[in-house]
Amino acid sequence: MTPVEALKTYYGYDNFRPLQAEIIEHTLTGNDSLVLMPTGGGKSICFQIPALLMPGTAIVVSPLISLMKDQVETLRSNGIPAAALNSANDERINQQIKEQCRSGQLKILYISPERLLVELPWFLANAKISLFAIDEAHCISQWGHDFRPEYTQLSTLRQQFPKTPVIALTATADKITKQDILDKLELHQGRCFISSFDRPNLSLDVKRGYSAGDKLTVVLDIIKRHHRESGIIYCLSRKATEELARKLQDKGVTAEAYHAGMSIYQRDKVQEDFINDRIDVVVATIAFGMGIDKSNVRYVIHYNMPKSIESFYQEIGRGGRDSLPCETLLFFNIQDLITLKSFADQSGQQDINNEKLKRMEEYAEARVCRRRILLNYFGEISDCRCGNCDVCSSPPNLFDGTIIVQKALSAIARTNQQAGSRMVIDILRGMMNIDITSRGYHMLKTFGVGRNIPTRDWQDYILQMLHMGFIEIAYNEDRHLKITSLGNEVLRGTRQVQLAEITQPDTLVAKPRKKQRQEKVKQLFETPANADMEDKALFEKLRELRHTIATEINCPAFVIMSDKTLHALATTRPTTKEAFAGIHGIGEHKCKLYAERFTAFIKSHIAST
Ligand code: ADP
Ligand code: ZN
User: Which of 482-488's residues contact partners 24+ apart within 8 Å by CB, and which partners?
Assistant: First the structure.
């Protein structure tokens, strides 16, 4: 069997994605490699197909038992003999698995690094190993963001198995980590395969300065648009996850909080329920996601700003792994910035973390295509205008904001630079509250001069001023606003300021944009899912059927069939086994298992409409 035949037979896919075929060929000829691909890029197939085509068992080192479980289930659902050797299994089962390796029945074995080191002598003596795949290979490097000491001992593999190809895979791209992985694994002859980090199916949206109420409205709107689909919402604090989950539950959404303060049992339950589509939304802190291999996450929302672009990209990367459209939205306000700044200051790596935060902030503030910024950030020089981000779909209008900025600067100056942003806004808006009156700020000349501008807009303008360098936040002085020398030029009238107009969360703005974007999105996908031809009612029914089967055999729905496959079925409506076999994502095994049931189901649907 050739690699492309294996792709069709086992996975039901017609074509390799960029680099997959080369990596497979390279491994089949016995060479080492390091593969850098974004989350959802299709790393697994790069070692699974060589594993299928080579004699013996491939050993896949993976850091998380939960990840192994999903991968093994996915492989088995495609008729590939796979298993995971780990401490979660009964030891008797582990013995059986080892027997299957010895006899050469098992093609792919997942194992944790510590377990592998214990078992290596046994493997050396008793089994034929086709290749080693080191998944999440950045865990070997202290430079990576997820160092695991157990990984460092994997360096012995190269010496103990000099003829067995090693393939290291990661979605972490920076240069130092990359070199470190090659050194630590002793892959001196290893070739690097770096694929594009672009994930064109993730739309990118940023909304600045929204109030809690506005955020909730927008979130509910997204959830409604993705009725019964899966989504993740990231918050900064445990408390915020619980509050938001409760608010969503009150609105009838099946949502659960997830954070490190919950018991392992509770966390596992939420994760399992999410993977099995029993709950639609997880509202989580960053603790959530490492073990999530769910392919049909249709939106990822950052309710607060993340601490770095790396975290951000990794988190949104958990959406749309099946390469279908996934909506991502980042909310961002000055309060987040203040909180994150104090985290960074206390982090022990103040300079690095403040710098990372600054880059994140610049991203959120930017007036150029967001994808371009992300790709440039990851070292992939790009001048794209992606057409699938908010900046591309509605470039900001600039206006002469000199007077607005002067008003704010003047208010700051008149407090002797002893007020934080909230107080300055209250002064500008002419709010008579105790904090203001007790300090006599209601007597200032600037009191109430910005009454005509809503608080939310003032927050936005102050943020813009911050980014343009007219003011600074004195974190060591109760976060009072200070005017910079550049700000003084504006105050003196020697410098003009262009502010970006604020787009309000009104549907009038959102609607035409959405349409434009859909057009663009349609052009972007591998198989231009012909949305107009799709039988929407059938799709919903097929989803039900998938859910029923998942419950019957106790396995996640997306393992049975991806959303993409369901869309293809709802568009093509195959009623024969042959037609069913031709559907994207249906390999031989799935065809055998499901052709009859699905084609009968589709037939009866057609008859009833
Ligand atoms: P990664 O491990 O890089 O995050 P996966 O290996 O899980 O990504 O692949 C992501 C998704 O893309 C999976 O659903 C996988 O089946 C699918 N996929 C991978 N390669 C192809 C291909 N050549 N054609 C179609 N789908 C693919
Ligand atoms: Zn863009």
Answer: 482/412, 482/417, 483/409, 483/412, 483/413, 483/417, 487/409
